[in-house]
Amino acid sequence: MMKEMKGICFLFSETGTEGGWWAMQEDDAVTEDGEWSYEGLQYLEEGDDFTVFAQDGSVLWHGIIHRNSKTGRIPRQVIRKGKLLNDRTWKQQVVGGMWVHWIQKGMDPEAWGLLFIGEKRCLLRHQEKS
Question: What is the reported pTM?
Answer without folding.
Answer: 0.86
